[in-house]
Write a structure and sequence with these properties.
Shape: elongated
Low-confidence stretches: 1-23, 106-112
Number of helices: 4
Helix content: 10-25%
């Protein structure tokens, strides 16, 4: 996950961060923050593999995908999203990009949206200030997620 985030941040910002050669494993970095986002980097004490966790109170990043939580009982099968007040996009049209990136949801395929998750590729939301999600037509109007700071935290 760390390397995926590293490569994503490199592609978004055009460079790779340089790590000091004197790092000894195992280590855990202090939690870094940007906006509502938190980044925790740690190494496995057994094999030394490095991983990272990027999340907020309402979302998390897994496999190049930002997973927004709308509540377990929310069905998002017909959800629409708007990024920075742009045009409405159907989540079902975005799912194929998620599947190509290997994201399949916490408890099964993303085609089973009854767990209240909406996954959007990082490339779609990078640099945005907010995302509006309307779970279903005719239901709750929408939920607004403030995501400013996501691109910054991925660059750390």
């Amino acid at each position: 996950m760390f390397f995926a985030a590293l490569m994503l941040s490199a592609s978004l910002l055009g460079h790779l961060p340089k790590l000091p050669h004197s790092i000894t494993l195992p280590f855990t970095t202090p939690v870094q923050t940007a906006g509502d986002w938190r980044l925790k980097v740690r190494a496995d004490r057994f094999n030394g593999e490095v991983s990272c966790e990027v999340k907020s109170d309402f979302a998390q990043v897994r496999r190049h995908t930002v997973i927004f939580q709308l509540g377990r009982a929310t069905n998002t099968s017909d959800a629409d999203v708007r990024i920075n007040d742009g045009p409405a996009l159907k989540v079902r049209d975005i799912r194929m990009d998620n599947l190509r990136d290997g994201f399949s949801g916490r408890a099964g395929p993303i085609e089973n949206p009854t767990r209240g998750e909406v996954g959007l590729p990082i490339t779609l939301v990078a640099g945005a200030d907010h995302v509006l999600v309307r779970p279903q037509r005719g239901k709750k109007p929408y939920r607004r997620f403030e995501i400013a700071g996501l691109t910054e935290i991925l660059a750390k």
